[in-house]
Amino acid sequence: MWQRFTERTRRVIFFAQEEAARLGRNYVGTEHVLLGLLRENDTEAMQVLERLGVSPTRLRKDFESQLMRGDGRLGQEMQLTPRCKRVIDLAYEEARTLACNFIGPEHLLLGLIRESESLAGKVLAQFGVDLERARHEAAEIQQKENAMKPDRKRESVPSPPVPSSPGRAPFSPPPPAPHRRFGHHPLSHMTLDEAIRHTVQAALAEDLTPNDITTDLTVPAETRSRAIAIAKADGVIAGMEAARLAFNMVDPTVDFVARVQDGERVQSGAEIFDVIGPARSLLMAERTALNLLQRLSGVATETARYVEAVQGTQTKIVDTRKTTPGLRRLEKYAVRRGGGHNHRYNLSDGILIKDNHIVAAGGIRAAVERVKAEAPHTLRIEVEVTNEDEIREALDAGADVLLLDNMTPDRLRAAVDQIGGRALTEASGGITLESVRAMAEAGVDLISVGALTHSVHALDISLQFRTLESP
């Protein structure tokens, strides 16, 4: 079913996850879906509510006041409740009824209204939201949009898949949305805080399924402890918020005290943070907190080494897309904390015509001309080149940036002279700490280093239990 969701609907589901975690629940219910809908502004669902005289702000405020908080423990993967799964099935039916190709936020709203015995359905009824009126308004809004975008509907909606069983299936991120040129995946729209929370939540679900059997059997529930994170090597710290969230998602009562900030250099033996709380909670969150903190600090530390190596030149150190799957947003943040800069976040953030694109397109000029005919003028066009002829062809075609691939310092210097400031220059390929200074002194504007993220060593940090407090 996920492949039938629009990008905005997927954002709603991500927001629903966030709301569930914020309210201390390890499942996604209809109430969380409604809160997710109310977070995604300027959608057809919000237009339907406003046409029905319902203020989304007031609805959210009143609804939240009726909800009970959970215990905050994420003891298993975030999953959809049976009612929530039924709402999605109903939303699919509504999309088909309205002859829509994909399930939009407005269809989720209609599904929530139809599931009238759910928490979300009941509160919508309290606000006087009527199914037939809502359906009429959704259809009218859709007709207006179709009139403005006649290509919105291209095919009929296929028959629905076999309904899932009422059991609780694992809740996992959806696959990529239907292709849209120059669009963005929902993850790229997340704020940094949302991306960190999403990552920590997934990491905890991976580790605690459903519990920590060793801790449960060896540590009395009433035992409280204090633990201190100690750096065992010099480095640059990144990922403190991820570490804090790991402990507080497992147990909101854990007291997390940061001793340093992201971007700060530390020496071996430095105290990074300390935590005080139930010993079981500290032990359950320890590995997830350290995994993320060590990894991101390793990225920041390696970046700082490269930045220091080119100090005094005009060259900026930038990262690549060679990141750990699922950690790109956080690793690129760590690069910035180490003093580096970010290259493209994803494939839609910029145009980079590489060797295989050139072969497939029939040459540099053909590739650049096709891009110029289709892409927004605000996007820079970068072209990979390996010799003088390719540099000349790329410049004549109007490339904005030239990626000088696998060149020696002498060849780089000659290439920079040939370009003569007509395009930005980026050196890439086989860059090491030993060679990066010579590359920078060749006069390039940027040096991209995949090693910042794809093969970095984690910064060694340990969590040491210092005292045990009697209850």
Summarize the structure.
Helices cover 48% and strands 13% of the residues.
What coarse outline follows from CA principal-axis ratios? Answer: flat
**Strand arrangement, largest sheet?**
8-13-12-11-10-9
Q: Which runs of at least 5 residues are low in confidence (pLDDT < 50)?
A: 150-187
Structural class: alpha/beta
Can you give a write-up of this model?
It is flat and about 75 Å long. The longest helix has 31 residues. About 8% of the residues have low confidence. The protein has three domains: 157 residues, Orthogonal Bundle (Double Clp-N motif); 124 residues, Alpha-Beta Complex (Aldehyde Oxidoreductase, domain 3), CATH 3.90.1170.20; 147 residues, TIM Barrel. It has 20 helices and 14 strands. The relative contact order is 0.10. The protein is α/β, with parallel strands linked by helices. The strands form four sheets. It has a six-stranded parallel beta sheet with strand order 8-13-12-11-10-9. It has a four-stranded antiparallel beta sheet with strand order 5-7-3-14, covered by helices on one side. Strands 1-2 form a two-stranded parallel ribbon. Strand 11, helix 18 and strand 12 form a beta-alpha-beta unit.
